[in-house]
Amino acid sequence: MNIKILVVAHKQCEIPKDDVYLPIQVGKVLHPDLNLGYQPDNDGENISEKNPYYSELTAIYWAWKNLKADYIGLVHYRRYLGMKHGKDKWQCLLTKEEAQALCKEHDIILPQKRRYYIESLWSHYEHTHDISHLEKTKAIIAKDYPEYLPAFNEVMKRTWGHMFNMFIMKKSYADEYCAWLFDILFKVEKQIDFSSLSAFDARLFGRISELLLDVWIETKGYSHKEIKMIQMGNENWPQKIKYFLAAKFFGKKYTQSR
């Protein structure tokens, strides 16, 4: 069983030594002089030039079109999947053997749910970003993929979701997911005026896709297994909560990643 888990990076970083991991440099075509020694996302058929808008999705697109593997996955240089607990986080990351065992039993591997408690996924997006982007997405799904609309409506009402575009799944499933996802996102893209957006706000497609993964999985009826999401370094939870509450109660939209 050949499994490849992309590690998305835009700068030099520590990479797990297990060969199940494949580091990929995103936005490579926009930075031709920056050579990290990782797989570039502008090799073969690609959308590397869209990285300022699509974030880690340029890596997913590259894998869809170019990577030969039985299973593919995606993690970030600061966020990984794992099953073990311990002080040394690098020793807790998912190994090839663990990934193979999981994939024999489950269609899709996902990180544990991200919970927002007092916000639905829709209202959280509305309070932190431009809700018209999500409204355009819903309209396209209703028109072109109406069978996905019930799951979309249900997922948007929830206070939790499988976030960060992290997963491991059969390559055939990933091909199916990407064909659906990118068709929707490319149609949304045609309706967006990027000249009015900041660099932070322009990264909207990575955010929309986070919300669409559960919509696709539930409509297809595929089984999934949740495992730990391991954050490398420390998250500033007091600050995250502060900005989360400011967005909900005082209308202060996010201006940088939280």
TrEMBL record:
InterPro entries for the chain: DUF4422
Domain DUF4422: 4-220
Any Pfam family: DUF4422
Highest taxon of source: Bacteria
Protein name from the UniProt record: Exopolysaccharide biosynthesis protein
UniProt organism field: Bacteroides uniformis
